Input
Amino acid sequence: MMEIRFRDSTANRIKSELVVIPVRDKQLDNPVLRALDRHLKGQLRARMSKSNFTGAEGSVLLHPTAGMLPAAYLLLVGIGAGETSGDTWRKAGAKARKEAGAIGAGEFALLLTAETNLESAAGAIVEGATLAGYQFNKYRSNGKPATALNRLTLFRSGLKKTSGLQKSVDIAQATAPGVFLARDLVNEPPSVATAKFLGAQAQRACQGRGLSVEVWNKKKIEAMKLAGLLAVNRGSLEEPRFIRIRYRPAGKARKRVALIGKGITFDSGGLSLKPSKSMETMKLDMAGGAAVIATMSCLPKLGLDIEVTGYVPTTDNLPGHNAQKPGDVIRYMNGKTIEVLNTDAEGRLILADALALAAQQKPDYMINLATLTGACMTALGTQVGGIFSNHQPLADSLLRSGQEAGEKLWQLPLVKEYKELIKSAVADMKNIGGAHGGAITAALILQEFVGDTAWAHLDIAGPAFAESDTLLGPKGGSGFGVRTLIKFLLSL
Output
């Protein structure tokens, strides 16, 4: 684990391979930069002028000090002119990590500016610097590991290490391995990351005080009458699994929360077969389940006094000789029935099992995550997840948690009039609606299985998988949802 240090120092005195100075847009005449420029005999200001560096958000300027400062390099990071949010600092930490790696530096020091909310900034910087170092090189013959970041120093004049600062950093360092786990699970090839594999990974990762894991095989799934999971699995040679992970605090639990994640390890569409191009990234269809497993794995380190249960129904969706057919009807444990008209709308079929099972336990809150609909991506793009809820305070809390975590969410409505679109001629409902509003009709189907419990559905089809490299990670699984869920659980 990376060492985090706090230092009472100024930028011209701190010793480090790389010293990072956040700079506000068009505020280049501040005391810190003036002092550094004096020690550098005017070279810093000349370099800023030559490169047109203004401090615009996202801009960087690297400057070697040639021995004129204790630091080998200075890195100016533009943080823009607006309010300095946690996400601003998260990105600054990530940029600093990448620049440190580019020059082969195994550590850096970052100045916490005077107006900074220290606790929020410290955790975000550590989180950004850690997440930016993620790689998935398991299947590369020439994969080169990134330069290890061994130490990060946060400093400013008069800075004192407090319990609040340490707690913020501890949470960031407890969360990042969960994000990495979720990314790893999504990035594995689908022939490796089977339902059986996911169950084994949950048992391996979810260890520690208060955690227990059950992985149900097909016989147990049949005994529990999880009809949706069994129906989707019919076309596969791989057996399904149902993963239940429980976290119980040492003392009496103040709240009880259920987390449910969609675990489709590969989605061909079943008999309603997808075009081949659309299958290329369908290993991502278990990203919701991966986020739940990863979140649960972090809980022993967070000291929560709430009880949390994770549910992950998992199978692939293939067009084998016994695959479910359009026109089939599924009867669920709560008595409700769904007519399957499109076997490619399978995520809602397995989530219905998990939601109905979780609702029986009457938790205070239920939250499900799923790469559920392309319609949500059409509405919100690839960087924003949709949120639906039957309980506005829960939705508001998750929206705040997402904002704090830097994971964008946007609330979409549960339009009750659209229930007409999912009426079936032979069952209680059908698994698809009309040509429009597909994210909403999918959410309305899920709502039928939550009862009176306060519930939220996060459709993460867009942000669960990055199609290109980002500041916080490479192309592939993003681990979206883990940080939001942890922020939410910590807020209860």
